Structures are given as structure tokens and as C-alpha cells.
Amino acid sequence: MTSSSKTTHNYNPTNTPAWKTLEQQAEKAQQQNISDFFDQNPQRSSQMSVQSGELFLDYSKNLVSDATWQALLDLAAQSLLEQHRAAMFSGEKINTTEGRAVLHGALRAEVGDQTVASAAAESDQRVSLVKQQLADVELVSEKIRGGQWFGSTGKAITDVINIGIGGSDLGPKLACSALQEFAHPDIKLHFISNVDGAEILTTLKKLNPETTLVALASKTFTTHETLLNAKTARNWFAETLGLENAQSSSHFVGLTANRANALAYGIPADQILEFAEWVGGRYSLWSSIGLSIAISIGFEKFTEMLAGAREMDLHFQQAPLTENMPVIMALLGIWYSNFLDAQSNAVIPYCERLLLLPSYLQQLDMESNGKSTTLDGESIDYQTGAILWGQTGTNGQHAFFQLLHQGTRMVPIDFVAAAVDNLSNEEHHRVLLGNMLAQASALMCGQEAPEGEPYRYYPGNKPSNVLLLDQLSPKNFGALIALYEHKVFVQGSIWNINSFDQWGVELGKKMANQLLASDSGVQAELDPSTTALFAHIKKCQE
Ligand code: F6P
């Protein structure tokens, strides 16, 4: 994987002794019942729970015996996880296919955090660079929040549209929704990502161009959808304000790791907020891509979010494997995916402000670990990333929980909630959390069917984690996201894959370009089904 860390050659998780033990444990698990584990060990819930800062994870309701748990911990110890983790935090180029370091941790680090002595000086320099870049975020966000950033007609900004997609959209959008308790009362944030014109055109109709700022968010500044949406926004400024080249006015800022492209696009140099190329798109909300978050909640609270993520970084690096929250969650995912044939993992927040958490995690997890080639370029013959999906509770209870309780598939669940919610009231919050606890318990305990009513049988033995935040503060939100980042990292490391590239998205992009070119008369080689569909759409449009 790296020059200084142990080579990955010959490492294959399925060849470790722990993997073999886990295969045997999986056979035993067919006969085991989670509830019985509690009868056998009254200390189970305290033994199988862990705290980091203000995050508390109860993982006792998993189909994991003591022997299985030991074998999972052994798997982590027998993998290259600890070397990979040190390599990531010390800035080695662990994203081998793109030749890049993976340093989103540096976005929330402090001087002196580096534990690998030989990397300390470089790491401290990086922290200084990040602080400079974040100072720009502070300057711009505080100006906007203070009514000191003016549009071309001299009016202060009231609406900010973040135009970006994937990592340049999902993180900021989730954070602004999750932390709405702290939102600026007079400045509204809007997020445009889809190339579906209906999204941007409907949004623009509601806005006053004189008081609107576009935050053009793109790591590469080449993404087709983002540039087309930006063009539509520019046309809107031209049509409504007579402002040609709005991208060069005070109505646009650029958030990017590609300064040259942003300059070439026409964004003024002092309106480009940069971040480093070693920040992956799906890990970029902590960088200038998070400008919209800072505008919404203020830079001070933005830094609290970073501090929460840093707390999780330190926990991940320092806690022993047995008490390491990301490691624990990752191992449980591997157990279900690789040994018990679970196809998916549901994340169900009992908090409406975390509605977007599952879609954010879909990119984080599935773009990172949806891989089938090892770090050594070999084909993989074991399962990697699971399908992640979810929806908020209690809404999900009235939609898909039927399948969770009585369906035929195993779906391990992460329930996520805040113990205290300042935006709710006592009655609502008691009912909300009561429902979550009841669901987790019902899924595990199940129930016999009354005589003659087999359809009322609840098999139970359905596993879940409960992840509790003391409250949904910026700090705890930061820790929550960093927890999942590291969970994904641990799984990728054990599976011996590169969690930091995304070659799988390239082919579709290329074919879309070919197909669109053929629309303008250029001959493209399309498969027969696509050719027929294309023709059908054209006919409908005539
Ligand atoms: O196509 C996938 C992807 O590269 C994501 O990884 C990324 O977050 C998204 O596109 C947007 O990329 P950019 O920020 O460069 O516009």
C-alpha cells in the first residue's frame, strides 16, 4: 500500500486464522439467539457499549457471541488496519490509483496532533495551511452573515445557493439541515445538485437575484452537472439584472481544489476559497466546501463541528480496538456482510433533522467501499461494501418496518438519536425515543404467534446498534460524521481495497457524453436497447 507501511502483498482477509474461525462461528450463529446472550451474561449491555465524547454506542443487540466477538477483534488485529491507519494520518499516498494522500483528518487537526514522529513537521505545516484556508471561510461567511457582502446593486445577501453535486453537496446539505437549530434567522441556504433543470429553475423563480449569492462548489471545477447549473444561474443574473458574466461579480464565489479552473471560469481570485487536493470529495464538508455550513451556523459553530470530528479522530487513533467505536461498527458490518450474507445495512435516525444522513452515508460508504479489486490489483472473491439505505423513524415504522420485522432478509440496523432535543418538547421526545427503543427491542425479542394466527409471528433475533448523541450539537454532529468516515475506512482496510478512489463512476459519465454527442448528430456506438429508448424519447418530444 505504501512505501513505509507493511506491503499488502499476500494479505487477504480470507486467509487469516480469524476469518476461518468466523466461518465456523457463522455456522453456530444459525442456532443462536441474541436474547439468550443476555440470559447467559447479565453484564452484556454494559460490556457491549462504548462512549466517545458525547456519543454512546450500545452494540449488545447483535447476533454476536463472546467467541464471535473475539474472532472479529482478532480479524482486525490480523489485518493491516493499524498500519493503514498510521499511513493515512501521517500523509502517505494511500489512494494509490490516484497517487494521493488522504488527509481529511488534517482539516480538523491541531498542531502537535501527529503521532508519527517523522511526519510531525509536515503535518504541522499542513495544519497551518488549513487554518489559513479556513480563515478565508471565516471572512466570507461572517461578511455574509453580518450583511456586509453586497450584490451588484448594493443590497446585502439574503439567499445563498450552493451549486455542487456528490461530496460538494451532500455534506453541506446534511449539516445545514442537522444543525438548523443554530441557523442564521435571515439568510436562507439552497442546495442545487441535480442536472434536472426543474430543480434550479423552480428555486430561482423564488429568489431575488439582487440579494442572491451562488457558492459554486466543485473540487475539480469540471463536473458537468455543476457547470450546467452554474450556467443557468448566470443566465438568470443576465436576464434579471442585465449582469453579463455574473461569475466574475460579487454574486459568485468558487469553492474548489482547482484554483486554475476556477480562475479560467472567471471567478475573481479573491472569491476563490481553496482546499487541498488531498481532501476527497466525499470527505470535503470540513473544508471550504463547508462554506454554506459556516454561513448558516456561523464560523464559531463550524469550528465546534471540526472539534467534534477531531475528538473522534483521536479516539479512532488512540482507543484500543476493543473500545474503538469505528472499529466496533466496522467489524459488526463485516460479520453480517461476509459471514451471515446480509446484503444491506439500514441507518434509521430518530431525528427528522438527520433525514439526509442515509443519503450522505450512501456516498460515503458505497462510493468508498463498492469495490471489487484489491489494493494489489487482484479480483476479489468475498463481499465488500454493503448497500446502505434508510429513512427517519418514526416515519419508517409506517413504511418499511414490516419487512424488518417479518421479512425474510437480514438487515442490520443503526438506530441514531439525540437523548436531548432543544427543538422538540418533552412529550414528543419521550414518544420518539420510546418508539426507537421499542423497535430495537421488538426486532431482537420477537414474539410467538397466537394459536391459529401464524401471520402474527415475529421471529425476532434481528440485530441493531443504538447510537445516542447527548444532543445534536455541532460538536456531536462532527463526531458522528467522523465516526462513519472511520468505520468505512476500517472496513476498506480489512477488505484490502482502496476506499478513496471512485473509478466506477467514470464509464457512465463517458457514455453520457457519447450519447449526448450523438444527439447533436455525431455517430455514437450505442447498444440496441439504448438506441431504441433514445428514439422513443425523441418521438415523444416531437
Ligand atoms: O463522480 C463522482 C464524484 O467525483 C464524487 O466523488 C464527487 O464528490 C462528485 O463527483 C463531485 O465532484 P466535484 O466536487 O469535483 O464537482
From TrEMBL:
InterPro entries: G6P_Isomerase, G6P_Isomerase_C, Phosphoglucose_isomerase_CS, SIS_dom_sf, SIS_PGI_1, SIS_PGI_2. Keywords: Cytoplasm, Gluconeogenesis, Glycolysis, Isomerase. Residues 1-31 are annotated as: Disordered. It is an enzyme of class 5 (isomerase). Pathway: Carbohydrate degradation; glycolysis; D-glyceraldehyde 3-phosphate and glycerone phosphate from D-glucose: step 2/4; Carbohydrate biosynthesis; gluconeogenesis. Gene3D superfamilies: 1.10.1390.10, Glucose-6-phosphate isomerase like protein, domain 1 (3.40.50.10490). Belongs to the GPI family. NCBIfam families: PRK00179.1. This is Glucose-6-phosphate isomerase.
